[in-house]
Design goal:
With about 220 residues, the chain is mainly alpha-helical. Helix content is about 75%, strand content about 0%. The protein has 9 helices and no strands. Helix 1 (about 15-30) packs antiparallel against helix 9 (about 195-220). About 35% of the residues are buried. Its main location: membrane.
Length: about 220
Amino acid sequence: MLSLPELALPVLAVPAPDVLAAFTLACAVLIVTPGPDMALFLSRTVAQGRLAGLVTLAGALSGILIHSALAALGLSALLAASATAFDVLKFVGAAYLLWLAWQALRHRGGLTLDAAAPVRLSYPRLYATGLGVNLLNPKVILFFVTFLPQFVAADDPQAAGRLGFLGVYFIVLAAPSCSLMVLAADRIAGLLRASPAVMRGIDWLFAGVMGAFALKLITARAGGS
């Protein structure tokens, strides 16, 4: 009698120290780079207070957690099916990171914070709004699918576990960092309004880090390593 193969979630595995350090740097830049989720939880903090901002942030982080888990599982399945396809995805990811770097330099970053938002949302609605911003954004899953493979080798027997670890690790880094942003929302809002140069500096930092990772990957693969 035929039986279906058992499906098991990969056991989390910690990457090498140099890989983890590089991923930490990339995450730090991503966390401070303004986006729709940051604009949302900072705006809600300015409009309704810190608790509202934290609730909105919790929703946004939940969306990212779901996306990163789905990306890790999907990439694990791809790796199990074809290491070659996984390597091809890495090249696609490198191209995508270069495109993100170009976009950051081409378009000035901006963060609109509405301190006079007329509608006060309930806490469940705040959480749902934060969740929806990331969960319903196809760019988030596209980013994780093309970003995570940059830090895992296709021939690594524990690649699936490392992908899972990196997804969880991103949330562990983002949660306290973004919470501090909520607590300092008024000061951050004032700084960004008073100094557009800060926003432009973040754009250049983001572009530099994304471009460096993409070029490092391309040259390493081209050299046969």
